[in-house]
Write a structure and sequence with these properties.
It contains 17 helices and 4 strands. By secondary structure, the protein is mainly alpha-helical. Helix 4 runs antiparallel to helix 11 and helix 7 runs antiparallel to helix 14.
C-alpha cells in the first residue's frame, strides 16, 4: 500500500512468499456466504435453546442483541484491519503488526479455542441433529456410538457416560477436512449450497412460526434471578450473551480468507459487515419464534428448533426440514471453523511460530494440506470424547479475547500510523473500539469461573510452547506500519 502523507505499510516480499501462495478464488458473494456459513448454525440450532433454558429465558433475544452489538463494534475494527492488512491469520496477524511477537503468539494460541475447538463443538451439535433426523424417519442409531464418553459441567466434574465415541461427529470432521484439502473453490461451492439450504429453512421457520408465538410464553420477558449469577435476571441475560457470542464468530472467518480473496481490500469489509448484518436479523427473529411457540424451560435439548416446532401440530411438517437445515448449517459452521484454523496455523507457521509443515501448500491443489489434516485429526478427537457445553464455553472466551485484541490494535494503529491509506475506516473509532472492548470484556466476565481457570491453564501451556519453540524460530512481522 502506498503511503498517504508519510506513513508506510511494509508488505511481504511477493517473490519470497510465492512458494506458499494460496489460490485467489473468492469474490464478495462467496465471502458473505462464508461468513453466513459460519454464523448461522450452532447459535440458532443448538446454543439458543441452552441459553434460554439455563440463563435468560425469553430474554435470550436481548442476549442476541447485546452479542450482536458487541460484534458490530468488533466487526467494524476487523473490517479496517482486513482492508489494511489483507493476509491470512486474522487477529493473529493484526496483533503481530501492532503489538509485537508475544501478543501475536498469545492471540494466535487462543484462536485455537476460537476455531479448532469451535469445529469440535459444532460437530457435537451436528451429531445430535443427525440422530434426531434418523429417529424422525424411523431409524435407530446405537447410543454408545452417538454420545461423548465423558460428561459434566466442568473438567473437575467429568465422569464416564458409558458411551464409546461420538461417531457421527468424527465422520463429519473427517469428511469436511477432505473437502478442504481438495481446494478452496470446490469448498466454497459446497459451502454456498449448504448456506442456501439452511437459510431457506430458517426463513420458513420464521415466517410460519411467528403466527404461533404466544405472549404467555414470553412473559415475563426476564425471569427473576434464582439466587445465583447467570441464572435468569439481568446477570442471566449477560451470561447468555457471552455464551451466544460463540455463534457470531463467523464474521471473523471472512478475514481469515484474505489471501484467497480476489480483491481483499474492497471485498473483505463487504463480507464481514454484510454477513454480520444478515445473521443478526435472522438470529433475533428466530429467538422470538423459538421461545414464543413453546415453554422456554424445555429447550435445553440437543435439537431445540425441531423440538419446538414439533410442539405445534400445524408446524410438525417443518421438523424434518429443520433437521436437514440444521445438518447443513452445523456442517458449514464446522467446515468454516476447520478452514479458519488451518489458515491461522498457515500464517503462524510462515512467521516461524509453528513448524513449517503447517505452511506447506500442495503444489497442485494450492491448499495447506498438511495443516488441514492435523487440524482435522485434533478436532475429530475432541468431538469424539467431550460434551458440547465444556467445549462451547472455551470457544466463547477465546473469541471474546481475540475481539478485544483487535479493537485495541486498531486504536494503536490510529496513533502510530494516522496517515496510512485506509480503504475502509472504522467510523467513530474512538467510541467504537472502546465500546467493543467494554462489551466483549463484560461478556467475558459473565462466563463461569471454571471457564476462566481453563483459559489460564490454556495460556500457561501456550506460553511454555512459545518459550521452548516460538520465540526461537519466529521471524519479524512482515506487516509493519510506521
Amino acid at each position: 500500500m502506498e503511503p498517504n502523507g508519510g506513513d508506510t505499510l511494509v508488505q511481504p516480499d511477493p517473490v519470497a512468499a510465492s512458494e506458499h501462495e494460496l489460490h485467489r478464488a473468492l469474490g464478495p458473494t462467496s465471502l458473505i456466504m462464508l461468513g453466513i456459513g459460519e454464523i448461522i448454525g450452532a447459535g440458532i440450532f443448538v446454543i439458543a435453546g441452552t441459553a434460554a433454558a439455563d440463563h435468560a429465558g425469553p430474554a435470550v433475544l436481548l442476549s442476541f442483541l447485546i452479542a450482536g452489538l458487541g460484534c458490530l463494534f468488533a466487526g467494524l475494527c476487523y473490517a479496517e484491519f482486513a482492508a489494511l492488512i489483507p493476509e491470512s491469520g486474522s487477529s493473529y496477524t493484526y496483533a503481530y503488526a501492532t503489538m509485537g511477537r508475544f501478543m501475536a503468539w498469545f492471540i494466535g494460541w487462543n484462536m485455537v479455542l476460537e476455531y479448532l475447538v469451535s469445529a469440535s463443538t459444532v460437530a457435537v451439535g451436528w451429531s445430535g441433529y443427525f440422530i434426531s433426523l434418523l429417529n424422525n424417519i424411523g431409524l435407530a442409531f446405537p447410543a454408545a456410538f452417538a454420545n461423548a464418553p465423558l460428561a459434566g459441567p466442568g473438567f473437575a466434574e467429568l465422569h464416564l457416560t458409558g458411551a464409546i465415541v461420538n461417531l457421527p461427529a468424527v465422520v463429519l470432521v473427517a469428511a469436511l477436512s477432505i473437502f478442504l484439502v481438495i481446494g478452496v473453490r470446490e469448498s466454497a461451492r459446497f459451502n454456498n449450497i449448504m448456506v442456501l439450504i439452511k437459510t431457506g429453512v430458517v426463513i420458513l421457520v420464521i415466517l410460519f412460526g411467528l403466527p404461533y408465538v404466544s405472549a404467555a410464553n414470553l412473559t415475563p420477558l426476564v425471569p427473576p434471578n434464582q439466587g445465583e449469577w447467570g441464572k435468569f435476571g439481568a446477570s442471566g441475560v449477560l451470561a447468555a450473551s457471552g455464551l451466544i457470542y460463540f455463534a457470531y464468530i463467523g464474521f471473523e472467518s471472512v478475514s481469515v480468507a484474505a489471501q484467497e480473496a480476489r480483491n481483499p481490500r474492497r471485498d473483505l469489509p463487504i463480507g464481514i459487515l454484510g454477513s454480520l448484518f444478515i445473521c443478526t436479523v435472522l438470529y433475533i427473529l428466530m429467538a422470538i419464534v423459538l421461545t414464543g411457540i413453546t415453554d422456554w424451560r424445555t429447550l435445553n435439548v440437543p435439537n431445540p428448533v425441531s423440538f419446538a416446532v414439533g410442539k405445534i401440530p400445524a408446524l410438525r411438517w417443518l421438523t424434518i426440514p429443520v433437521d436437514i437445515a440444521a445438518l447443513a448449517g452445523l456442517a458449514t459452521v464446522t467446515f468454516v471453523a476447520l478452514y479458519g484454523q488451518s489458515r491461522v496455523f498457515y500464517a503462524m507457521a510462515r512467521d516461524g511460530f509453528l513448524p513449517k509443515l503447517f505452511a506447506a501448500v500442495h503444489p497442485t491443489l494450492k491448499t495447506p494440506h498438511r495443516g488441514t489434516v492435523v487440524t482435522g485429526l485434533v478436532a475429530a478427537a475432541l468431538a469424539a470424547i467431550f460434551p458440547l457445553d465444556i467445549l462451547a464455553d472455551l470457544v466463547s472466551i477465546g473469541t471474546l479475547l481475540a475481539f478485544i485484541i483487535v479493537c485495541t490494535g486498531i486504536m494503536i494503529l490510529r496513533v502510530t500510523a494516522p496517515k496510512a491509506q485506509r480503504v475502509f475506516r472504522t467510523p467513530f473509532v474512538w467510541f467504537v473500539a472502546p465500546a467493543g472492548i467494554a462489551s466483549c470484556g463484560l461478556m467475558m466476565f459473565s462466563l463461569s469461573t471454571a471457564t476462566w481457570y481453563r483459559l489460564v491453564l490454556w495460556t500457561i501451556a501456550g506460553i511454555a510452547i512459545y518459550v521452548l519453540y516460538g520465540r526461537r524460530h519466529a521471524e519479524p512481522s512482515k506487516w509493519k506500519v510506521g
